[in-house]
């Protein structure tokens, strides 16, 4: 049977190791809390994307409804257009039939008028023949009158006949002249009528060709409308399919919402528990330092107390001398410094603080190699100045300015922690300080409230790192 030997550990060793262990607990808790915060941030970002997706889905659904309505309306319009085009085709077909009948009628009328013209030509020729006969008859009557005069009384009766014949010839000639004039007028009118009929027949043929082309065009339009109607039917079916997919996506998104909400609640509870664990570790660390079992940390608290006292002395003296006013010290009108990145701000305290508090911060930092910085921040997290090493002039290089240009910056506000600190003494805690490269430092801090004329302005803080914190 294996025997286990008891390991002897002195109480002093345990107590000496407690501050380091408290720091590691805070570091681990902060690390996990940071990861949880990152997860929550990713979840929130994902939720924002999810909300945007839901909005897009809603808009897509609305678009689908509009497309469906438009497709139905287009289908109705297509049906009406096909019906109207059918009616138009029937009307045009009827018009073509009537135009064809009119062309046939015009052709027949042209034939009749042409026959009438031929008959008039025949009448004109007959009239010319009659006129010639009348002239011949007139000559014969003239000769008969001459012979009757030669015959004397014996030719008296023959003379009367010759005179009548002459009169008849004259009347016949006059009648043929009238007939000729009438026939000329009729010929002129017939020519005009024939020309108009021929023009009408030509226009009718052109109208027939135009109507035929319109009929062909309407046929093409009917085919096109029918094709559009088929496409609308296909669009309607596709729209129904897309709508089904959209509904499935909505169901998936709703399931994701429920799961995301449950995860967020679990993460929030975990974050709260880790914050509580961090607070417990910090309270234990603070109590250990105050109990005198953490000599190194107690030395840092002493440096913070001395720096705080000197800063208070200088500030109260300046107020008493009228060099600076209380309203300047508590000025919260932070004006952004143009072009600063990270953003830096100026107020009425900044110049005085840089001139009078910065040397105290430098002196406090130089008291121990473990001290990284000393600072003064107001209750809004504003740093009117900082140690000289971290109050350098900006270069425009973001990495440099993030690390070495802290004067005028705003730090993260932890009002819960700050307001829980006792005003009459220091408080010890550890935290993870973010670096420009995305990494963190485990920092220990001694913080003392900075109170002026009974008003809490902010905190005097000393940040330090022991060798054990740098492993």
TrEMBL record:
Record keywords: Coiled coil, Transducer
GO cellular-component terms in the record?
Answer: membrane
Q: Which SMART domains match?
A: MA
Q: Which Pfam families match?
A: MCPsignal (PF00015)
Q: Which domain of life is it from?
A: Bacteria
Is the keyword Lyase assigned to this protein?
no
Q: Which InterPro entries match?
A: Chemotax_Me-accpt_rcpt, MCPsignal_dom
Q: Which residues form a coiled coil?
A: 43-80
Give an example GO molecular function: transmembrane signaling receptor activity
User: Biological process (GO) annotations?
Assistant: chemotaxis; signal transduction
Ranges for domain Methyl-accepting transducer? 21-257
Similarity comment: Belongs to the methyl-accepting chemotaxis (MCP) protein family.
- This chain belongs to the protein called Methyl-accepting chemotaxis protein
Q: State the organism of origin.
A: Altererythrobacter epoxidivorans
The opening ranks of the lineage are: Bacteria, Pseudomonadati, Pseudomonadota, Alphaproteobacteria, Sphingomonadales
């Amino acid at each position: 049977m294996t025997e286990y030997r008891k390991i002897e550990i002195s109480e002093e060793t345990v107590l000496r190791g407690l501050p380091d262990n408290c720091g590691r607990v805070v570091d681990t808790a902060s690390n996990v809390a940071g990861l949880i915060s990152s997860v929550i941030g990713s979840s929130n970002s994902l939720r924002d994307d999810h909300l945007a997706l839901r909005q897009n889905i809603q808009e897509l659904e609305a678009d689908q409804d509009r497309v469906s309505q438009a497709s139905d309306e287009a289908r109705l319009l297509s049906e009406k257009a096909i019906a109207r085009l059918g009616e138009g085709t029937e009307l045009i077909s009827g018009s073509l039939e009537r135009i064809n009948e009119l062309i046939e009628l015009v052709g027949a009328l042209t034939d009749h008028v042409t026959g009438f013209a031929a008959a008039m030509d025949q009448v004109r020729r007959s009239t010319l023949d009659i006129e010639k006969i009348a002239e011949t008859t007139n000559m014969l009557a003239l000769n008969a009158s001459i012979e009757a005069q030669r015959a004397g009384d014996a030719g008296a009766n023959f003379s009367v006949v010759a005179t009548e014949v002459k009169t008849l010839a004259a009347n016949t000639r006059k009648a043929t002249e009238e007939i000729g004039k009438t026939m000329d007028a009729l010929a002129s009118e017939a020519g005009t009528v024939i020309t108009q009929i021929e023009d009408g027949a030509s226009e009718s043929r052109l109208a027939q060709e135009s109507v035929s082309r319109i009929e062909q065009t309407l046929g093409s339009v009917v085919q096109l409308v029918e094709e559009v109607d088929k496409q609308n039917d296909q669009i309607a079916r596709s729209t129904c399919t897309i709508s089904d997919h959209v509904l499935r996506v909505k169901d998936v998104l709703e399931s994701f919402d429920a799961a995301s909400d449950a995860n967020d609640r679990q993460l929030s509870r975990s974050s709260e528990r880790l914050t509580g664990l961090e607070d417990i570790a910090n309270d234990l660390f603070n109590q250990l330092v105050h109990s005198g079992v953490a000599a190194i940390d107690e030395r840092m608290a002493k440096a913070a107390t001395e720096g705080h006292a000197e800063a208070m002395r200088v500030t109260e003296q300046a107020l008493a001398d009228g060099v600076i006013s209380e309203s300047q010290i508590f000025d919260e009108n932070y004006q952004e410094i143009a072009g600063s990145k990270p953003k830096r701000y100026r107020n009425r305290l900044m110049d005085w603080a840089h001139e009078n508090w910065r040397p105290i911060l430098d002196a406090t930092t130089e008291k121990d190699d473990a001290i990284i910085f000393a600072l003064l921040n107001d209750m809004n997290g504003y740093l009117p100045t900082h140690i000289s090493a971290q109050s350098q002039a900006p270069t425009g290089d973001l990495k440099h300015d993030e690390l070495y240009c802290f004067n005028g910056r705003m730090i993260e506000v932890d009002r819960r922690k700050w307001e829980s600190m006792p005003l009459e003494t220091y408080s010890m805690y550890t935290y993870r300080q973010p670096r420009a490269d995305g990494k963190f430092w485990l920092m220990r801090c001694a913080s003392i409230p900075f109170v002026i004329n009974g008003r809490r302005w902010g905190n005097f803080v000393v940040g330090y790192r022991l060798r054990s914190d740098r492993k």
